[in-house]
Amino acid sequence: MDPVSQARATVAHDLGLGGVLDRRLPGYEERAAQIQMAQAVAESLENGQHALIEAGTGTGKSLAYLLPIVRSGKIALVATANKALQEQLFYKDIPFIAENVQDVKAALIKGMSNYLCLQHLEEERSGFQAYTHDPAFEELEDQRDDAKWDGDLDVVKFHLPGELRRRVAADSDDCAWRECAHYGDCYVRKMREKAQEAQIVVVNHTLLLIDILMEGWLLPDRDVIVIDEAHHLEDEATRAFTATVSPRRVETLLAQRRLREHCDPQKLENAVTANVLLWSRISELVGFGMQRGRLPLTERIEEGLRLATAVGDIASHMRARKPEVMDPRESQLYDKIVARASNLKSDLQLVFGLKDPEGRVYYIEREASRRGRDSSYSVSAAPLSVTEILKEKLFDQISVIATSATLAIDGNFGFYKRQVGITDANELVLPLAFDYHKNAILYIPRLQHAPAFGKDSGLYLDELAQQMRDLVLASHGRAFLLFTSQRTMNEIWSRLSEDLDHEGFTLLIQDGNLGRAELLRRFRTSERAVLFGMRSFWEGVDVAGDALSLVAIDKLPFDPPDDPVHEARVSRMKAAGKNWFGDYVLPLAILRLKQGVGRLLRTKTDRGVLALLDARLLTKGYGRQVVLALPPAHRTLRIDDVRQFFQDEDAP
Questions:
Q1: Cβ(554)–Cβ(451) under 8 Å?
Q2: Are 158 and 205 found together in one domain?
């Protein structure tokens, strides 16, 4: 038997009858699509080709790529979209394989700020600050006595206040590494050493992208990279490769103790003054009309360049005046402050000097005030495209297996490949794990009013609110009402909340007062719950069973046409004579919509209704393409069919 056939047979045995799943943990079950995916991964590991695999909810993607990797003996980096997925892999899926298939060494790597710094803990203890203000400090000290704890602050079994966490967390700019008195017990050191010995290293997308820019310096050597939730890759790369300057970034540097102790006071004062003048100038440019969002930056801002000069003067002065005799730890931290100032100077010059107008998009961003905090500005220089850098630094260097529930459109990976720079790959679209035609309805009503960019009409909002009210009453709650804009969500909330509250529904809204985890907890545990949510509820949210039976989406998730990054990318395609809508705008919206649809059915027994409340699905030529790209649920234009669906569900 040739090696590829042998690999396929091995994983089929692991996943099929007579294999590991005969001894499975609760919740695991045999899936034909899972076996097919595992065999495709095994083939890719053998021939070294890239693999693109679309596998819907319920396939069991994690085991399907982990098992072949373990069997192959190859060293793999597995990059996921968020901490929750990292922790599922490391604390659930990999231990399952180690127990039932073969032992495997694995490591979980997060950013330094996720780990306890023993030096910071000692400083808090010696200052008696934590005992006075945070009783949780004692629980943190007790946590250290747990020999199995790896210093990860995300998994402590008590509430850790944000301010205390910030004070005791590791910080790369304040880390003396080998010169630290606690280096022997350092959690970050142990994490990195464990990763060097592991066969599977679990990271997030951001760390992976920083690592490829550093040409593999940050993370361990590897034979293959798995990118889970790979539909995020372009957005995450754009974010990771964007240079951003904010008031807080400047202020935290200028407030550093070592800088204040060693820098010429006049040079420090010059930088403080320049910083104030810069953000006053930004406020003038933005004006009072911008509540939140992004505004293109098209001209150099001299105040920003003057701040760059002032920060550069600080770096040069400290570099030249470094004391000849310093404690080794202080010497290393001194050098880090100088490097930090130099990096800030470079980013200030890039952002405010518009140094790369052909390759970058420049914009001012305002974040809306939340929880009593003032709004704040930042200014960024984002790459116009990440295709070439991903191709050069990632896909041309190593074998990559990319998987997600949403990578292809009608079985075609062309759009995804163009966006991330893959030219050749084994491609596989797996069959859906759930029977959408039997267990789901796709409701697309004939609406009289279409949404508009900017401020939607009152008639449109009234019609949207009425549709959502009818749907919630039909489903008896158990509903996600998902929106593409904060403004629309607030408008519909104002129209429905009083009425639905009077009807006895439990209403939840993503307004910044509660985090996503707490909103989900309340949704799962409340009767007749209705959650008004934004984009963060379109994906990465798992509510199985009867708790969620309706997902209603207000409109197609197109990017705002005036977003500077989106606008620049569209303008470039127009200038090149390309089909900017059909080849970029529409495919992007379809993939996002598929993520939102994926919230509905999470197990084989789930039933529910997906409502797409956008008139353009029936009036625009592209509407049919959108609908055909969605799972094959029974389609209807009639609200009475929705009501009947839920009545049949309630029948004995």
A1: yes
A2: no
